[in-house]
Amino acid sequence: MAVxxxxxxxxxxxxxxxxxxxxxxxxxxxxxxxxxETMYEGKGIGxxxxxxxxxxxxxxxxxxxxxxxxxxxxxPKIEVxxxxxxxSSEGCLSVPGFFEEVSRPSEINITALNLEGEKFTIVxxxxxxxxxxxxxxxxxxxxxxxxxxxLKRQRIKKKLLKISKVAV
Length: 168
Ligand code: QAP
Ligand code: CO
What we know:
Layout: H1 26-41, E1 46-48, E2 58-61, E3 71-80, E4 85-90, E5 100-105, E6 108-113, E7 119-124, H2 126-139, H3 150-167
Antiparallel strand pairs: 1-2, 2-3, 3-6, 4-5, 6-7
The structure holds 2-phenylethyl (2E)-3-(3,4-dihydroxyphenyl)prop-2-enoate and cobalt (II) ion (CO).
């Protein structure tokens, strides 16, 4: 397994729409492992392939305290189960150092394929629901900062651009 390099906002490659996975081959299995390793290494609870500049519809999450419950979602789909929304603080490995409040549907039905190509369904609430919606947004080129005010997003952009330049 390997730790992958993560794209940092406002990198335009984060705006790429990821493609459906048609065959779950060894390359996809290796990618799933690498995404998990990269997520754990970054102390994250979720990571999408988009963030590693791989534009395929796969994401990983682990919202457990022990960090021993990895979930791999291939070609995920969600259905919002009710009108209710919940506000929570979100961060992103592609937006390091920033955490902001975002409102999202609180209860969702997730359908995805696992690494065996089998379809599975989970009803998610709480942190799992937030994390899966956040990661699925990445597959569609969306980032949580898109939900913030223009002023907040511009401030974050400016600070991260400055850090990226120093880091060269
Ligand atoms: C998405 O994000 C998420 O800024 C996953 O310095 C986040 O794992 C869903 C991280 C919160 C729901 C709630 C961010 C690590 C990790 C940082 C992450 C940082 C170090 C973010
Ligand atoms: Co993110």
